[in-house]
Each structure stands twice: as C-alpha cells, then as structure tokens.
Design goal:
single chain, 201 residues, mainly alpha, two-stranded antiparallel sheet, 64% helix, globular
Length: 201
C-alpha cells in the first residue's frame, strides 16, 4: 500500500534524517555550524533548494529522457542554488560571507541530488513536495541544533545572545573542527539511543 503524504513529510525529520541517519552532506554541516545563526541560514538555503528542485523534477520527470536526466537535474538544482546565493548576497551579506562557498556547493550536495534521483524522479508532485519539505526541516533542525550547541559551549551564547554566566570560560575547542565532530557524534549516539527502533531498552 502506498505510504501517505504525512509519512513522506515526517520521515526526513527523524526516521530518515539526512544528517544523523543517512549521513550525507556532512562536509557543509560540520563546516558552517560554528553558530546557531549560521546553521539556521544554511538550513533555510538548503530547504529552498531541495523543495524547489524536488517540485520541478517531479513535474518534468515524464518528459526528460533517461540518458540526460542527471545533467537536467543538476541544471534545475543549480538554478535554485543561484537564486538563493544571489538573494543572500543582496539581502544578508554578512550571512552570505559566513556561509561562504558552501552555499554554491549545494549544487553537488549528496542529499539534494539523492532526493532528485531516488525520489522526485519516481514520484508525484505532492509526495515529492512533502519529501522535500521533510528533508529540509530535518536538515535545518539538526544543523541549527549543532550550531547552537557549539556556540553555547564555545562562546557561551546562542544566536549571539549571552546564555551562560559571565564567569563561564568558553571552551573554544567546540568552535573548531574537532568540536564539530564531537558534537555530531554525540547527537548521532543520542538519536540511535532514543529514537531509532531497537535503540532504547
């Protein structure tokens, strides 16, 4: 029996989370998540691209010859990436500089390309739209949480606002690359323990 649209929407948040479960797109996730704001900004850009590309690819899937489907998918994805990249540069220049090259690199992000090839090209518009929204939310939640934890431990703030007492000595390791690996490792372990089937006893 065909799974409902609700399942397509929710699976990317926990059950098939692109970062914690599928473990794709870890390079930009670890690189830009030095703060909660960067994580949220990257998540929003990713959402726009994955939702838009899923929608368009699902619409054109029946008219694209299989021999050229990958170049067509890349063209569609790069169009949405260009839109979001230019919008960030125009309206949020500081965030654009913080995210750097990782926004243009969404074009080759394994998650976006994977959803296009494995899902949007084989399913209807409604299901593909829900899949894109779910994957986008799942990615955004995790990268923002990762950035918030790293910012909190490494600087004592969250979204730039002081959270910990002024006497707190920032643990700068968490703002550096090793801190990203430590936090994502603990997040993956927690997800497996509390949410994955059979993980909790």
């Amino acid at each position: 029996m065909k799974k409902g649209l609700l399942h397509e929407l929710t699976k990317g948040i926990i059950e098939e989370n692109p970062i914690l479960i599928i473990m794709l797109g870890l390079c930009p996730t670890l690189a830009v998540s030095t703060s909660a704001a960067n994580g949220l900004g990257m998540g929003a850009a990713f959402c726009f691209v994955v939702i838009g590309s899923n929608l368009v690819i699902s619409l054109i899937r029946s008219i694209v010859p299989s021999q050229i489907r990958i170049p067509v998918y890349i063209t569609v994805i790069s169009t949405f990436v260009t839109i979001v990249d230019y919008a960030l540069k125009a309206y949020l220049p500081l965030l654009s500089r913080s995210l750097g090259v990782f926004v243009p690199l969404i074009v080759v992000n394994c998650i976006v390309m994977g959803r296009a090839e494995a899902f949007a090209s084989r399913n209807g518009v409604a299901a593909s739209l829900m899949d894109g929204i779910g994957m986008g939310i799942g990615f955004t939640l995790i990268i923002t949480l990762l950035g918030a934890v790293r910012e909190l431990l490494g600087n004592g703030t969250v979204f730039g606002f002081p959270v910990l007492p002024s006497a707190y000595q920032p643990f700068l390791l968490f703002i550096l690359p090793p801190g990203a690996f430590l936090v994502i490792g603990f997040m993956m372990a927690a997800q497996k323990k509390f949410f994955q089937k059979g993980g909790a006893r």
